[in-house]
Amino acid sequence: MPLPSHARVVIAGGGIVGTSLAYHLAKLGWSDTVLLEQGSLSGGTTWHAAGLVGQLRSSSNLTQLIRYSADLYSRLEAETGQATGWKRCGSISVARTRERMVQLQRNAALARSFGIEAEVISAKQAGERYPLMRTDDLVGAVWIPGDGKANPADVTQALARGARAGGAQIHEGVAVTSVRIERGRVVGVDTSEGSIATEIFVNCAGMWARELGRMSGVTVPLHACEHMYIVTNPIDGVAPDLPVMRDGDGHIYFKEEVAGILMGGFDPWAKPWGMDGIPAGFRFGTLPEDWAKFEPLMRHAIERVPALESAPVRLLMNGPESFTPDNYFILGEAPEVRRYYVGAGFCSGGIAAAGGAGRALAEWIVGDGAPMDLWQADIRRFAPFHGNPEFLRERVSEIVGVHYFVAFPNRELESGRGIRRSPLYERLRARRACFGSKMGWERANWFAPPGVAPETEYSFGRQNWFPYAAAEHRACREAVALFDQSSFSIFHLEGPQAEAILQRLCANDVAVAPGRVVYTAMLNIRGGFESDLTVTRLAADAFLVVTGSAQTTRDAHWIRSHIPEGARATLTDVTGAHAVLGLMGPRSRELLARLTRADLSSAAFPFATSQEIWLGRARTRASRITYVGELGWELYVPAEFAAGVYDALEDAGRDLGLADAGYYALESLRVEKGYRAWGRELTADDTPLEAGLGFAVRFDKAAPFIGRDALLAQRGKPLARRLVNFVLDDPQALPLGDEPIWHGGRIVGSTSSAAYGHSLGRAVAMGYVKRPEGIDATFLEGARFEIEIGGDRVGARGSLRPPYDPDGLKIKC
Ligand SMILES: Cc1cc2nc3c(=O)[nH]c(=O)nc-3n(C[C@H](O)[C@H](O)[C@H](O)COP(=O)(O)OP(=O)(O)OC[C@H]3O[C@@H](n4cnc5c(N)ncnc54)[C@H](O)[C@@H]3O)c2cc1C
Question: Cα Rg for the chain, rounded, in angstroms?
């Protein structure tokens, strides 16, 4: 069949992801879709996948995507007549160590809070379900009966058949050679067989996606790595319903394959592949066997399943798969080009994810916006630097092993570090900062006193930094603390139409006098948070927009895509131009007054205002706001003046008890004060009314804002889902976030953030609670909650008000 001259959507890539997208577009009634595959369907990475479908992921929405995949694969054969090899065989994850067991228990609890059946079982019970397994060295296991396996190539064919039945055209042996772009939008594609005019292009090109994106200026940060498994001849006792088994401490997994065992592994330091690009003509390709690399995994596997020692190995499969810098896949509209979408980088989970990811991407395209909170997979979590080939190569060799790391809280990656550094980095290092990484920034997490190594020792209990972060926390509450917050994303929006654009984007009223700081949300049409930010009016036609470190690309994209063509307003990212110093605490005024003649009294410098002041010898923007709940100023210092200002503050603050403080103290301070964090309490699925931020919504402002109608529909009705602040009864308990919240014998939510509240002497947490009858202060007053931490339930009090300084007296003094 010849290529059509026009199509509504063109998809590049006929792996499981591209075919799933075509299938789901057809299901949504979009039949005018053309899928182009340079080779044959499934001939990229899909054909040699092991086919495990494990449902649990770290967020509810990603888990729901995979649950949907499992459901889809179970019924595709009936729908299309093409077998998929789907088998609901269940999965067992085993623990060789106590730490691993804690993680498995936490995973099981999380699974249950997402509605997945998961049972903590003993080593003996694990052995009964998997008789070939050695169990005498195991601490325990978790059984998930709904997990399964499928045949990846067959699922791809079934999806393709379903897509064709819905009207999609699939052309094999046709490569997309370039994407035509005009005025920042897709207008067509050129292929090896001619051109197709289209307004929507989707890059589902697997490990080729980075190069295909680069040709259009689109950053798709992924890199191929070698991934290996063996398949044995039949072994006695191996039947098709043998569960999938994962032994994370050995970095290995097992699956039945034609009465033998398929055993694969995630090497702690894997081998990147395709450094100079994917070789031309790589179709149904495999890589040379590397027994030396596989040998440690094989040893672990024989320890677990002794029968492997004598079983003839029929095949060592070494196949390339693409991995991303953070081990999550990449989905959504590229921020660089309108209507250019990406679905790639599936990090060895593409078979499990493809059903749900294909559906979500189809809904994203049809609805011209993400259908739900998919931030973990959203392409806008990356910035151009993530596409750097050297960074990617280094990072992915570590990321492969992350699959089976023990997921300790605060675990930091070791590779690809030091990419972005604040002007204060060397000073903070000299003060013994222990750094973590966010969006490429090195940020001080905590400061080690002399004699203590600034290195975090990982565990599920109180980690080694606990007393030092506690001291930083107290310094902030009782004296004054200095936080380097230079990783904030900072933008200028300037031009005669800047106000009108922001009024439409922001739920709060930003048409304020110059010098006012407004805390506001940017909402989607469902009323959910696209971002939360502060907007400072600098002049009639100029605004300073400050958002979180992780949101630079996302927020810039959201704002730019809402600047109408021809409008007189320009958004400029000025993040790197400033250092941001948070000077916070009851003595911050006294300290600042030693370095400036500006009147810092509340009358002259009230809360939520901003002024340019002389600070020492630097012209500095000082904004009286806080993320810790104390009197304080955020100081926006031009980068070249930052070191001088820091030194001046340190000198002037010594006798006032000034302490350097890091992000761990910031976290305990903000959770204690009930301040929400974007991405945790505030996601695209949460509205300001549910989040308790109705005070930052101005329904009555002259210009309606995006999301207003959705909020109006919710306003005045009992809220069946609300964010609640918790204080735990047991002063020793240490929740970490993502724990189930129990009430009345049922799970009613899970914690979104948790920390030790050093001012309260016990742990604090936040989390959304669901209750069909509605949640209000009266209900909460009498309610008894429990937070489930590693299998134990700890009593907690819930309130809509923050546990620390509920009346906000501290910040306004
Ligand atoms: C050894 C191994 C075991 C695995 N086991 C599992 C598992 O058990 N469970 C699981 O969930 N996942 C597993 N995976 C991962 C899974 O295979 C992948 O995540 C998934 O197949 C990715 O699908 P895809 O459609 O994104 O990519 P691909 O299957 O690679 O499809 C991309 C397609 O795009 C085509 N293409 C590229 N460029 C162009 C162009 N310019 N024009 C047209 N077409 C183009 C390619 O030819 C290719 O067919 C495993 C992977 C490996 C390597």
Answer: 27
